[in-house]
Amino acid sequence: MSGLADENVSCPAETTTTLLHGGGWCPYAGGSQLAAAEAFLRAHPGQVRYITIDIGINDVAGCASGPAVDQSCVEQGVATLAGNLPQILAGLEAAAPGVAIFGANSYDPFLAGMVSITTPDDDPYLANTSTAPEFASSSLKMVDSLNAALGWVYQASEVRVVDVATAFNTNDGAMAGNVDGQVVAQNVSDICAWTHMCDSSGWTMHLNDAGYAVLAQTFEAAIGPYLASLGSGTWLVDVAGGVHPLGGAAFLGDLSGRSLNRPIVGIAATPYRGGYWLVASDGGVFAFGDAPSTARPEAWC
Fold first, then answer.
1. Is residue 92 within 8 Å of residue 176, measured between CB atoms?
2. Beta 160-162 vs 100-104: how paired, if at all?
3. Burial grade of 43 (CB within 10 A; 0-12, 13-18, 19 or more)
4. From-to residues of CATH 3.40.50 in the chain
5. What is residue 292's DSSP assignment?
6. CB–CB of 266/283 below 8 Å?
7. How far is CA 76 from CA 21, 63, 79, 105, 204, in A?
8. 10-residue block means of pLDDT along the chain (301 residues)?
9. N or C, fewer C-beta in 10 Å, the chain?
10. CATH of domain 16-230
11. SS3 20
């Protein structure tokens, strides 16, 4: 996004458990990826426009390491995610109140076959003929279960969903794709075109450059309208501290029903309009959304 700097605390092969508690591939000063993200957010109040998160597939990927997808393993992985992800999102929200979070669902890399454990550099697609005939359909069942759980958690946490599954045509089984001159289902073709599942690089389910471009476009399609909406609308505030959004402005809280020493006489927005301060005639300041309670509003105007 133009004009923004990216703070990347991600780590490959992360599960919701390692993201929450640590123990994954990447060392973090705070012990986990979540702790690192929370520390950054708390250190930059009012300066973060949005948060993105892409997690989940590694909670179930191990269930597709045999000749067939182990659906009981999938159920366990999905249950683990359903327990961990709300805690992760609550931590991010607490560290950056009012900042929008965008969460991705998943594509299905196993449409192109399973990843070999003994020879990880093998081309998974070439091994596809040795898997059970129902492997692809059972992998879709796995990823559909994962995406359903992600959707439930994101909705409950008021996180905006980035629909990667649809962008990757995950459930499009029409025989309209092509891999090495062979007619295949469109979803298989796209996985081969946008991941390393059909080459011998060893990066398997990870995206290649073309796949990352699709992912970026999908995030941009979700985030762009949100950012545009921040530039529209405004707020009115009354003397009792009631905030009244107009146009596309979001309601981020107010002082309605609270006893005030002096009337509210003004409102000031944070730079990215993800929060605001209400100012009383005696100099009292009340922060909402991503507005830090320790900052002076005039410093942001």
1. no
2. parallel
3. exposed
4. 16-230
5. -
6. no
7. 18, 10, 5, 18, 23
8. 76 96 94 97 89 97 85 98 98 94 96 60 50 80 97 97 97 90 90 91 90 94 82 82 84 91 91 84 90 58 37
9. C
10. 3.40.50
11. helix
